[in-house]
Amino acid sequence: MSKMKSGIFTAALATLLFITSCNAAFPRDTKEKSTAHRRDVDDKSRTYVPITSPYRNVFLPLSDPEAVSITRFLHDQPKLNLTAAENATSWDNTIVGVETLPPNKSVALPFLNGQKAALPKRYAKATIKFAATDEPYYEDYLVGPLPVDNSTDWQPLTFIYNKQNPIQRVYDADGDKVGDFVDQLEADVAPILQDLLNATDGNGSLTTSRIEPLWRENGDVIAWYQYWRSPTLEFDDGTLLPQGLYFKLNITGRDPKGWSTLGWYYDGIFFNSTEAFQNSWKSGKVAPVPYETDGTWGTTDRRGEDLPLDQYNPPMAIKPDNPRYGVDVEQQYVEWMDFSFFISFSRDGGLSLYDIRFKGERIIYELGLQEALAHYASSDPYQSGTSYLDSYYGFGPYAFELVNGYDCPSYSTYLNTSFYTRESTHWHPNSICLFEFQRDYPIQRHSTANYVSITKNIMFVVRTVCSVGNYDYQFTYEFYLDGSIQVLVRASGYIQSAFWAYNGDYGFKIHDALSGSMHDHVLNFKLDLDVKGTANSLMKTEFVPVAETYPWSSGKRNTMKLEKSFITSEKESKIHWSPNGAAVYSVVNKDAKNAYGEYPGWKVIPTTGSSIHLTNPNSSNLGPSVAWASHPLYAVRQKDTEPRSASGLNMLDPYAPLVDFGRFFADGESLDQQDLVLYFNLGMHHVPDTQDLPNTVSTLAQAGLTIAPQNYLPAGDASRASRQQVRINHGGGEAHVTWFGGGGEGGDDADEKNGEPEGMFNLTAARSGVEDYTGGFVVRKFPYDPANWYWEGESEDQQSGN
């Protein structure tokens, strides 16, 4: 992952954003608002059944009027001394983020449980950058209740953080002045740049990128920079063009007069000053080494020899019948088969799901991304010093429009998302998709000499793609008929590469002067399971080898047993998956045994790719800010004061994070029949090779975890209720097919109904329509002008908030 100076992360602090409600304005069959609650629509052209949520979505992002009123309210507070974003300088206090603060679980549950509790009051979290000081900082404020009226108040938001003084220092508040300092430095060494790299920054052929996070050395603020060649074509392949020249700055304080250049690094040699570097070059001791240049090798357009028969259209998924799921677009509520849930969206983590119910019972209160890191390693100071915590940049702002027919089937339902930066709302249309899909294998089958029984494997998918820097992360939540839910992450896009010299121990050489820099991807998710209530325990069921003597055996037999145990406290709830996949962990309810005396529960199992942890948990770059990355699975007591495992501001000062996940375990509380929360990690250890050029492909770059019922359903497999199955009796050489009503009709005489679709299908209606791709539009919120409220067609800089 790379946040290049010339790319969308020029001013990373400017990407702390406002998230507003995902209202509907969809070009593809989603313009109609929810009507009365309906279970069927006789219209094959529709993608979903319009329904009405049984209750309000208390997790919805801010509405446009709420965002406008909060911004005005905060500007009216003299103590904050705020300046409008469009007029602000680096020495002004500004609002950099406003979004919904989800209600505490203790408040939301009575309402969701239908206990005649009042609708939870809405509050917002406002992030303010206090820059009118020699020691600038961020501080979050609680604003509410909403809507803004005479009862609305504001106060520091402290209860969700475990830092003693929950403010976060900003050590690079003067990016414009740092840019000027770097420009002057580059002018001083322009002849060297021309000689070593055959380019200069002054003519745009070079750019520089800084390590993230900044280093702190003996109280000083240290920044390493690397030169990168600028792309010469229209493609975003700048992260494939590192040049082997680096410089080190001390940018402590806000006065550039106190800043200094601490050294240069080139061809394995460190020069402790610019003068030493210049003198060595003048004396011929510094000579050019091969460098990487741009070319078609870094482009993603088609090239190479034709593939046989590739000129023909491949098979495609179609929807042959009426819609089979319901959506309340306004409330972001979804129903499919036995499942229902609410959708929410945030700046830091993007898509989250709340109040997931199966057969009417809540099984999950919250499921969503918390944080993602990309930790690099190298012999050079730039890659060695680079470790991104991506919630700092935010996943929400980079959930761009999905490509119909490519990211999602052409019959999908699309939802919009939006974010609010520099006091303007930016909309990303069609950035969440919902669809049904038939897997290429059955969920159940069995054959005998007389019959075969088989059931189609139908899943429901919620998907979004977040392009954070050079990587595109696809987040997918798959729901299955048997009650299983799979959480999947896939990655593609450009790698952040390293210069080839001296990096043989850190990656493969994959181009002329390019190393595929090794790195860890670790993505942390929150899973708040509620199994028949909130009083739950964490059970471990393990295959163990034993030597056992039985009444019928003549001696000991080498075999295995099932060992059942419980993780009883937070002292033992940092968990590594068992070798050989021998153990399964499940959240169960001891107080609700099923008819057979077993504890009902939901188990969690890594099922795709790798469920990993950080290779070196004691990261010099990130310190305690990545305490959540030392193990692949954790269990803690649910607390309203611990809603997230991380904060988007942690990367500003990783050794003094706002949220230190390690402190969640400090009191070692009991986990026996308590409200439990699991945190799990997905990701991969990535060593790019030539197959990652020009882009990493998702074939191997994926990881998933499945949440599945365990002794939860007394009637057995829930997929038996599906009509999408047949039984074929074939004894005597003649087949008799029992249909169960799949195909639009069915009922009591389902065995007489042929469930296969019939008739002609309009392929034109299933075209992708990629020509309609729009990108997004902008709505200014402060100062708000309802007569001139949007500009269509964002540029990349507008979308990123630069």
UniProtKB/TrEMBL annotation:
UniProt keywords, alphabetically: Copper, Metal-binding, Oxidoreductase, Signal, TPQ
Names of the cofactor(s): Cu cation
Residue span(s) of domain Copper amine oxidase catalytic: 317-713
Domain of life: Eukaryota
Matches recorded under InterPro entries: Cu_amine_oxidase (IPR000269), Cu_amine_oxidase_C (IPR015798), Cu_amine_oxidase_C_sf (IPR036460), Cu_amine_oxidase_N-reg (IPR016182), DUF1965 (IPR015328)
E.C. no: 1.4.3.-
Modified residues (2',4',5'-topaquinone): 471
GO cellular component, one term: plasma membrane
Signal peptide region: 1-24
Organism of origin: Lasiodiplodia hormozganensis
GO molecular function annotation: copper ion binding; primary methylamine oxidase activity; quinone binding
Family: Belongs to the copper/topaquinone oxidase family.
Gene that produces this protein: AOC3
Cofactor remark: Contains 1 topaquinone per subunit.
PTM statement from Swiss-Prot or TrEMBL: Topaquinone (TPQ) is generated by copper-dependent autoxidation of a specific tyrosyl residue.
GO biological process, alphabetically ordered: amine metabolic process
Span of domain DUF1965: 239-305
Protein name: Amine oxidase
PROSITE patterns listed in its UniProt record: PROKAR_LIPOPROTEIN
